[in-house]
Amino acid sequence: MHVFQKNSNIFHLLSEGVSEGIIVVNTKQQIVATNSSANEMFGYEKEELLDKSIDTVIPKRYHTDHNKHVDKFILKSEKRSMGQGRELYGVKKNGQEFPVEAGLNPFKLYGSTYVMALITDITERKNYTENLERIVQERTKQLTEALAKEKELSELKTRFLSLVSHEFKTPLSSILTSVTLLGKYTKTDEQKKRDKHVNTIRNKVMYLDTILNDFLSIERLDSGKMHYKLEEFPLSKLVNEVIYDANMLLKPGQQIKYPENIDDLIIKFDEKTLELGLSNLIYNAIKYSPEDTTIEVIVNRKTTNLEICVKDEGIGIPKKDQKHIFDRYFRAENALLTQGTGIGLNIAKQHLKNLDATLDFSSVENQGSTFTITIPLEI
């Protein structure tokens, strides 16, 4: 009979007022005493753990290391916390594991050596700590994302201001030059020279107007102030107007091929959005195509949607740049020397998306591009 069983009343009196679980083991690592807190913590009845190995309340994966640790500990016979930097777990009678803290206290009684383990269930504390860590991580992530977004906005603002300065300065310089030269052509036989500069002024004013409309459109998109008006209109009317304006921008020898069989085609959509998208695609086709090439506008009516394609024979888009082509302010590597803001496609795609339409493309560098607006049809 164990000495603790002989003196059970004394042990009970001393240990029952303690909230921590108490387990006492001998040098053979057999449990010789427990208090009610320990029994409740591990899910055992009173005295059910007596004479069992301490491994009974320790997960199997720790058994070998734990035995060596306790053997060395008993030999040194010094009071210390167990674990020291690593997580400790106990295991209940039903097999459920839970985190614990354990303080080990060696002592001698009637010539025999024992170790008293003071065990605390830290499940709630661990959960709180983990929740706190998770909250800190989430807040840190949110802060990091906010800082990254702020940095991105700052970079976009810088690029935007640089873009506005450059894109306005160049056409304004052309307009000023043309106006100055116009004043010098006063003779009747110099009408062709006057016409040339008038066309230059007209084109540059149209370009500036397009840029301003794009910037206004960005502001409305970002502020959520866009209001669309769905109404029925003949597609031919819109296509005629867009192509008429685009003809004034054509390079020598360029031509626009008009779509076939659209005279009777009535669609229901936001007319200004479609005009913005189609104008952008045709203007880009003109800008990025050489002289003496054809820009083709193709309309395909399908069962559930309508496709409007703009096909050119231009410089195309490098494969590595294609994934960024709809990013705001992005300019493909082979287009950097050509005037442009890098916002037209981004705006057109966003507006079309807001109306359940899409804007896609296919392109091969040095062969040309085909951009396709797909509009859902009411059935």
Structure description:
With about 375 residues, the protein is α+β, with helices and mostly antiparallel strands. The chain has three domains: about 5-120, 2-Layer Sandwich (Beta-Lactamase), CATH 3.30.450.20; about 125-225, Orthogonal Bundle (Helix Hairpins); about 225-379, Histidine kinase-like ATPase, C-terminal domain (Heat Shock Protein 90), CATH 3.30.565. It contains nine helices and 13 strands. It has helices spanning about 5, 10-15, 35-40, 65-75, 125-180, 190-225, 235-245, 270-285, 345-355, and strands at about 20-25, 30-35, 80, 90, 95-110, 110-120, 230-235, 255, 265-270, 295-300, 305-310, 360-365, 370-375. The strands form three sheets. Strands 1, 2, 3, 4, 5 and 6 form a six-stranded antiparallel beta sheet that branches. Strands 8-10-11-13-12 form a five-stranded mixed beta sheet, with helices on one face.
Question: What characteristics describe this protein?
Answer:
3 domains, Helix Hairpins, 9 helices, 6-stranded antiparallel β-sheet, 379 residues, 5-stranded mixed β-sheet, elongated, Heat Shock Protein 90, Beta-Lactamase, alpha+beta, 22% strand
